[in-house]
Design brief:
TIM Barrel; binds zinc ion; single chain; 7-stranded mixed beta sheet; 9-stranded parallel beta sheet; alpha/beta; binds N-(aminocarbonyl)-beta-alanine; 21% strand
């Protein structure tokens, strides 16, 4: 007798689409086929897609964000929102403050997550202070313990690392097998442009976009890829917003480098014009890199279709808009420079890709699965435990109704921000039922009594199980 049987649906993986029932026991998928027998619980998926639960590998939750600024989501609201958006695993960032030990930062972050998660979670470290102690002892020990990825910044005054520091981190990654994600924007160029705009009294949110031009992102992308080449390590270039940076990734791959590219919904759906709102409304769209123009949107779709991007993540980084601890903090009302960077989007990430990508014929269902789950698992050492529908995999499953039509309204979403940057966008296709470790945690759009059982997941070193030669992306 199985614990759970999903009957009558169309199953999709990153390589195949087929009609099958899926049987679950003790939290894992144990059979896939027809006429599988009886189960304690049956879910009818007729007319719907049975997909691996989404993995959002770029999410900010409860991250310290500057004096007087508070991120809108904690683990409860952030993972609840993720679950409603068809995700079963999210990967938030644990920030090392300057002078702080990595273990102490992680202990604090685990304490915030413990018992509060609706999805499974796994953390990337943010390294802001790569001291000898951190690179020599702490980071290698953490990699052994399953914290196998980390992010470094080339921008933000308080977070950016010098090129020499980045080389030190990359070298440690090579020794330990960790994977480095890089935020690529040239901080000095941005500082210079900010100074010029402020001197001209040009301080409205729109200036956030003009002080962070494509050239600043492209240059930093090229530099990060060069530093990784010098040390000979793979690299993840996160939240890519434009064609010129994509070309840097493609050129590095042509040189035989292993580079993973990531883009996000904001670069497919928003433009810099959105930052030009009346009454400071443009603050709702302030994120870095900023949304660009329609040509850049087309370029990013092209990158989604052609495989320049292996990952499509939300970069969910939620601040409330009308809040003194959010976008409209007292200093943020005075200058774009003090508007916290980041926008919410963990719940809308997958519906946007399904509707704009699959339903509009830009990508097929296997590519959707690759971009939403499988490639995240392969890249960050969760595969094949997660990210696919296969015998032995965790029964983390989202059932999608391709006919469900909704208009995105923040009032219907479940994060703790007070707006959605995607308000009013019409969506076809939405996840209606979600299973986490074989438990039905959301059914027909409602949380069940089984919800909030998300666990922390330690990870293998990246790329385990992807079976691809070095120099390729995740391949799907
Ligand atoms: O504006 C953004 N993206 N904020 C989140 C932090 C980051 O750089 O990913
Ligand atoms: Zn970033
Ligand atoms: Zn981010």
């Amino acid at each position: 007798m199985f614990d759970l049987l999903i009957r009558g649906g169309t199953v999709a993986t990153a390589s195949d689409v087929f009609q099958a029932d899926v049987a679950v026991k003790d939290g894992v998928i144990v059979q896939i086929g027809r006429d599988l027998g009886e189960a304690k619980e049956t879910v009818d998926a007729t007319g719907r897609y049975v997909l691996p639960g989404g993995i959002d590998s770029h999410v900010h939750i409860s991250q310290p964000s500057g004096e007087g600024i508070v991120m809108a989501d904690d683990f409860e609201s952030g993972t609840r929102s993720a679950l409603y958006g068809g995700n079963t695993t999210v990967m938030p960032f644990c920030l090392q403050k300057k002078g702080e030990g990595l273990r102490s930062a992680l202990n604090d972050y685990h304490a915030l997550a413990e018992g509060n998660c609706y999805t499974d979670v796994s953390f990337h470290m943010i390294i802001s202070d790569p001291s000898d102690q951190v690179l020599g002892q702490e980071l290698p020990a953490l990699v052994e313990d399953g914290y196998t990825s980390l992010k470094v910044f080339m921008t933000y005054e308080d977070l950016r690392l010098s090129d020499a520091q980045i080389l030190g981190v990359l070298d440690t990654a090579r020794r330990t097998g960790a994977l480095v994600m890089v935020h690529c924007e040239n901080e000095d160029a941005i500082r210079y442009l900010i100074g010029r705009h402020e001197a001209d009294g040009d301080v409205a949110p729109k200036a956030h976009a003009t002080t962070r031009p494509i050239a600043a992102e492209r240059e930093a992308t090229h530099r990060a890829l060069s530093l990784a080449e010098i040390v000979d390590v793979p690299l993840v270039i996160v939240h890519v917003s434009n064609r010129e940076s994509m070309e840097e990734i493609e050129r590095a791959r042509q040189r035989g480098r292993k580079v993973i590219g990531e883009t996000c919904p904001q670069y497919l759906m928003l433009t810099a014009d959105d930052l030009d709102g009346m009454d400071w409304e443009g603050a709702k769209f302030v994120c870095s890199p900023p949304p660009r123009d329609e040509a850049s949107q087309d370029a990013c779709w092209d990158g989604i279709e052609r495989g320049v991007f292996d990952l499509y993540s939300s970069d969910h980084c939620p601040f409330r808009y009308d809040d003194p601890a959010g976008k409209l903090n007292p200093r943020g009302r005075e200058s774009f420079r003090h508007i916290p960077n980041g926008i919410p989007g963990v719940e809308t990430r997958l519906p946007i890709l399904f509707s704009e990508g699959v339903m509009k014929g830009r990508i097929d269902l296997p590519r959707f699965v690759a971009l939403s789950a499988t490639n995240h698992a392969r890249t960050y050492g969760l595969y094949p435990q997660k990210g696919t529908i296969a015998i032995g995999a965790d029964a983390d499953i989202a059932i999608w109704d391709p006919a469900e039509r909704r208009t995105i309204r923040h009032a219907d979403l479940h994060d703790a921000s007070d707006y959605s940057p995607y308000e009013g966008i019409e969506i076809t296709g939405w996840p209606t039922t979600v299973m986490l470790g074989g438990r039905v945690v959301m059914a027909d759009g409602q949380l069940t009594g089984e919800a909030r059982g998300g666990r922390y997941v330690a990870r293998e070193r990246p790329f385990r199980g992807n079976g691809l030669p070095d120099g390729s992306g995740t391949g799907a």
